[in-house]
Design a protein that fits this description.
Elements (H helix, E strand, L loop, with lengths): L37 H35 L4 H28 L9 H12 L8 H19 L16 E2 L4 E2 L5 E3 L4 E3 L4 E3 L5 E3 L4 H32 L3 H4 L2 H30 L3 H5 L3 H4 L14 H13 L7 H9 L26 H46 L1
Antiparallel strand pairs: 1-2, 3-4, 5-6
Helix pairs in contact: 1-2, 1-7, 2-5, 5-7, 10-12
């Protein structure tokens, strides 16, 4: 018999336990992700293969056809070198960032997936899913209660809870959800600081562990596309004007690579600028699109049910949550949370390294937190006052109706 987890009492979102030193969490690996069959892995890897094929074609058109076959043979080595150096670094950084974003993965919540891993591995191997899991279920249930009790008793500083004020717990992964973590329905795992699911990264997610590489891949793709298209178009026009039959002799690979550079450079570059804006605000795509009151607003006290709020009061809470982002520490510090600290700033643009922290707890803007607490208390106090006036008005109506009914009896 599978034991039923007892519900825990609701806790306010901003009622914090005392700070304690937590043990550093192990760095996530791709081994924690969902087991997949070989055929599915190959199918999901095809979009990333397409990306590297485009990069390979750009390298052929720019490095080999333009710089080596044309400029070096035309005795212009200095111009070829000046073209080659920026392109080579952008090409390496772009390809390396795409690969690291795929290889690193978004970062799976520790323990997520162990609940179903045995059944999934059995299904992939064709053995079946009927396994003896009763002991494992009981062990995980005891561990779940222990983790939730530790968090309530003063462990990790949890700021996000469910709408009813209880601790966020993923029943699919059977682990408590850290702040900013979400369950991906495609990966079937909880991802640390999940941004979105990206099919271009081998069917994986963009999250805490690979968000830096995802940003670098977007930016370097924009830089590489625009830079290569400008140079190739310039050299293509010069080639056509230099020879009598230049239009017929011009390499078609230059024109095709320049056209692809414009398309992908502008489209992906604009997408990268949007994510730069989100990084400067310390928001994920999920946090920017979902209702903000589930992230940073006090859960209603037991005496103030949330359904008693008027639409205008709900809008006021939503505006406050968007205005006072509790994770916004200023654009410089926000970018350090993605790319790294001050000491190794020169690694910010390189496709290696880890972001600071463990992906489960994040620095908080205490001033914004205090503002949210004040506004939330004002809203619920206003709602309580409105209910009190409504209750008084109803009691007054009841007394007046009762006096009207008793009047004729007294006269009689």
């Amino acid at each position: 018999m599978i034991p039923i987890r007892r519900p825990l009492p609701a806790q306010p979102l901003l009622s914090f336990p005392p700070e304690q030193l937590a043990k550093p969490a192990p760095l996530p690996t791709r081994e924690d992700e969902r087991p997949r069959s070989t055929a599915l892995k190959v199918l999901l890897f095809l979009p990333l293969v397409f990306v590297f094929c485009l990069l390979g074609f750009a390298a052929y058109a720019f490095l080999w056809s333009l710089c080596i076959e044309y400029l070096l043979h035309a005795h212009r080595p200095l111009k070829a070198l000046l073209y080659l150096l920026p392109f080579s670094w952008s090409l390496y950084a772009c390809g390396g960032s795409f690969w690291m974003a795929y290889w690193r993965g978004g970062g799976i919540v520790p323990g997520a997936g162990e609940w179903k891993r045995g059944d999934e591995e059995a299904r992939i191997a064709g053995v079946g899913v009927k396994r003896e899991v009763r002991g494992f279920v009981e062990e995980r249930a005891e561990e779940e209660e222990g983790l939730l009790a530790a968090e309530e008793g003063g462990g990790r500083r949890m700021l996000q809870v469910k709408s009813d004020g209880s601790v966020r717990f993923c029943r699919k992964c059977n682990v408590p959800k850290p702040d900013r973590a979400h369950h991906c329905s495609s990966c079937r795992r909880c991802v640390l600081k999940m941004d979105h699911h990206c099919p271009w990264l081998g069917g994986g997610c963009v999250g805490w562990a690979n968000y830096k590489f995802f940003l670098l891949a977007l930016w370097y793709t924009g830089v590489l596309g625009i830079y290569s298209s400008v140079v190739l178009f310039h050299e293509l026009v010069a080639f056509v004007g230099e020879y009598d039959d230049g239009f017929e002799l011009a390499p078609i690979s230059w024109a095709l690579a320049a056209l692809l550079g414009v398309i992908f450079g502008v489209a992906v570059g604009c997408f990268g600028l949007y994510h730069l804006y989100l990084a400067c605000k310390n928001r994920t795509t999920i946090e920017a699109m979902e209702h903000p009151t589930s992230l940073a607003i006090l859960t209603p006290p037991s005496s103030h049910p949330s359904h008693s709020l008027t639409p205008s009061q709900r809008r006021r809470l939503a505006r406050a949550a968007r205005t006072y982002n509790i994770y916004d520490l200023g654009w410089r510090e926000n970018l350090r949370q993605v790319f790294g600290g001050r000491k190794r700033w020169w690694e910010w643009g390189c496709p290696w390294g880890w972001p600071p922290g463990d992906g489960q707890t994040f620095p908080i803007n205490e001033e914004h937190l205090a503002q949210l607490r004040r506004i939330t208390e004002e809203v619920y106090a206003e709602a309580a006052a409105g209910r009190h006036e409504e209750r008084t008005y109803e009691l007054g109506d009841d007394e007046s109706s009762a006096s009207e009914e008793d009047g004729p009896v007294r006269r009689a």
